[in-house]
Every structure is written in structure tokens, then in C-alpha cells.
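**User:**
If convenient, please work through this fold.
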Amino acid sequence: MGTKFLILISMVFCHIVDDYYLQGWLASAKQKSWWDKNSPDKLYKHDYIAALFMHSFSWTFMMMLVPTIYIILFGGRYYPLVFVVNLIIHMITDNLKANAKVINLCQDQLIHMIQIIGTFIVFIICK
């Protein structure tokens, strides 16, 4: 039980590090309004999507790092589709908060916590 709890807490910690500390410029770049203000040329109209993707990839990698290492060291099955699904959910969620403005930070973080718990269940509990 202690190891599993440590894995879950590590996943939450990696979420916090990536979603708050490591985003840097991507936090601004994933907003359409930033591009409208700083690069209004039509050429850059959809560049916010690249920033959403890059942040979502980074977040997914970080959040799944500890269970992935656990599986490598102690055996288990890795599901690449879980990575892809987490990346897509994170992109959609962040877009709903940053651009569509239909969810707030609390809702955004609740969705991310559900992603973490779901990933934990797939990789660690259902092992």
C-alpha cells in the first residue's frame, strides 16, 4: 500500500511541477489572445494549438513518468493509448479554460486530477 500511495502522490507532484512551474512561455502561448496581441498576422492565427500540444505532451509525460518507471523496474503492462488519451484530454481541457473560457481553474484542475487517478488505476491498481 505504501508504494502505491507514493506513486500516486508522485504523480500529483509531477502534475503540480509541470502545470505550474514548467509551463513558462507556453502558459501565454496557448492563449489565442496572446497571439492576437503579440503576433496579429494571419500566419500565426493557429499557433496557439502548437503551444497547447507542447504543454499537454510535457504534462502527460511528467504525470506518467513515475508509473512508467515503476512498470519498467517491476513489470507490468504499458498502455500507449493512455498517453495519447491523456494528451488529448489535457489539450481540450486547457483550451476550454484558456480560450473558450467555459471552465475555471478549479474545474481544470479537477479534470487533471481525474486523469491522474484514472492513469494510476490503469497502470498500478489493475496491474
